[in-house]
Amino acid sequence: MDLSSISDKVASIDGQISDIFRALSNGFQKLEKIKDPNRQSRQLEELTGKMRDCKKLIKEFETEVKKLEKTNDSDVNKMLNEKKQFMVKELNSYVTLKKQHAKRVEMFETQGNEEDEDGLVASSMTNQQLIDSGNKMMDETDESIERSKQVVQETLNVGQETTASLKAQTDQMNRIVNELDSVNFSLKKASKLAMELGRQLATDKCIMSMLFIIFLGVISIIVVKIVHPKNKDISDIPGLAPPVVDRKLLWIPHRD
């Protein structure tokens, strides 16, 4: 998409950033061919200045894009953000190249200015002195490698301890989850038993109430019967009327 159709200022900034990226690419290619440390340093300073300018332009580009967010649709805003991310990524790649070349220049300058223990520069050293110096550098390199190995081993040990700790914590969490599941199951079972007990108690209460009412009725009838024994209504109630005794006249014949 042509950025000029979105904003002339955005298109202008994009063009300037593209020019700087081309200049940085050509500058680092030229830097690879330079052997003199002093010229390398000057070239790096020039490239560093271009990278600072590029960073400022990217900031301006981001500011203009934010101003246009409300007027642009989502697709345009997405494209502009991806454009900005590409610019930042490209600039970071050149910053990394700059750091690598800066280390090389510093190493060359240090080697060029270093002297051995006798005060002799490398160009004036004899073959034996060069061999001794090389052996010394190799010994120092071996010691550095051993230190690096120790650091790596310590890092591995820490990683193993961390892994074991995480495994123990994971096992503990699994046990807690299992216990929670058991508690939840017990709560559900207890709730079910409570509901069944409630229903049973309700049924028992109904039966007890009916028996109590019958008992009160019987007591009431007995009390009324005692107070009013001649009450016919009470006498007609089955089971409460007095027993009827059948009396038969016994005829005993006289014997002459």
UniProtKB/TrEMBL annotation:
<feature type="domain" description="T-SNARE coiled-coil homology">
    <location>
        <begin position="135"/>
        <end position="197"/>
    </location>
</feature>
<dbReference type="GO" id="GO:0031902">
    <property type="term" value="C:late endosome membrane"/>
</dbReference>
<keyword id="KW-0175">Coiled coil</keyword>
<keyword id="KW-0813">Transport</keyword>
<dbReference type="Pfam" id="PF03908">
    <property type="entry name" value="Sec20"/>
</dbReference>
<feature type="transmembrane region" description="Helical">
    <location>
        <begin position="207"/>
        <end position="227"/>
    </location>
</feature>
<dbReference type="GO" id="GO:0005484">
    <property type="term" value="F:SNAP receptor activity"/>
</dbReference>
<keyword id="KW-0812">Transmembrane</keyword>
<feature type="coiled-coil region">
    <location>
        <begin position="44"/>
        <end position="78"/>
    </location>
</feature>
<dbReference type="GO" id="GO:0005794">
    <property type="term" value="C:Golgi apparatus"/>
</dbReference>
<keyword id="KW-0472">Membrane</keyword>
<dbReference type="GO" id="GO:0005789">
    <property type="term" value="C:endoplasmic reticulum membrane"/>
</dbReference>
<dbReference type="InterPro" id="IPR056173">
    <property type="entry name" value="Sec20_C"/>
</dbReference>
<keyword id="KW-0653">Protein transport</keyword>
<dbReference type="InterPro" id="IPR044766">
    <property type="entry name" value="NPSN/SNAP25-like_N_SNARE"/>
</dbReference>
<dbReference type="GO" id="GO:0015031">
    <property type="term" value="P:protein transport"/>
</dbReference>
<dbReference type="GO" id="GO:0031201">
    <property type="term" value="C:SNARE complex"/>
</dbReference>
<dbReference type="GO" id="GO:0012507">
    <property type="term" value="C:ER to Golgi transport vesicle membrane"/>
</dbReference>
<dbReference type="GO" id="GO:0006906">
    <property type="term" value="P:vesicle fusion"/>
</dbReference>
<keyword id="KW-1133">Transmembrane helix</keyword>
<comment type="similarity">
    <text>Belongs to the novel plant SNARE family.</text>
</comment>
<protein>
    <submittedName>
        <fullName>Putative plant snare</fullName>
    </submittedName>
</protein>
<dbReference type="InterPro" id="IPR000727">
    <property type="entry name" value="T_SNARE_dom"/>
</dbReference>
<dbReference type="GO" id="GO:0000149">
    <property type="term" value="F:SNARE binding"/>
</dbReference>
